[in-house]
């Protein structure tokens, strides 16, 4: 399993301009957006992979996983 699969990527549709917006709760602030849902999701996986690499390069521990399976196990 890719490390990025351990972190939730929440895709919502913007009401103002009808684009897709992705956020990453518990991992990083910000996100990405675009008109094509699949492309936005693919980009979000790359962003999470790059964020994980930055945590490691800085010697920081990764935040706890936020995907549904990790949250179910925690409770």
Unreliable residue stretches = none
- How many helix segments? 2
Estimate the global geometry from the Cα principal axes: globular
Beta-strand fraction estimate: 15-25%
Q: What is the strand arrangement across the widest sheet?
A: 1-2-3
Percentage of helical residues?
25-40%
Q: What profile does the largest beta sheet have?
A: 3 strands, antiparallel
Name the helix and strand elements from N-terminus to C-terminus, one letter apiece: EEEHH
Q: Got a strand count?
A: 3
Structural class category: alpha+beta
Description:
The protein starts with 9 loop residues before the first strand and ends with a helix. Strands 1-2-3 form a three-stranded antiparallel β-sheet, with helices on one face. The longest helix has 21 residues, at 37-57. It is of the alpha+beta class. The chain has helices spanning 37-57, 68-74; strands at residues 10-13, 20-24, 28-34.
Summarize this structure briefly:
The chain has 75 residues and is of the alpha+beta class. The protein has helices at 37-57, 68-74; strands spanning 10-13, 20-24, 28-34. Helices cover 37% and strands 21% of the residues.
List key phrases describing it:
21% strand, 2 helices, 3-stranded antiparallel β-sheet, alpha+beta, 75 residues
What's the structural blueprint in terms of helices and strands?
Layout: E1 10-13, E2 20-24, E3 28-34, H1 37-57, H2 68-74
Antiparallel strand pairs: 1-2, 2-3
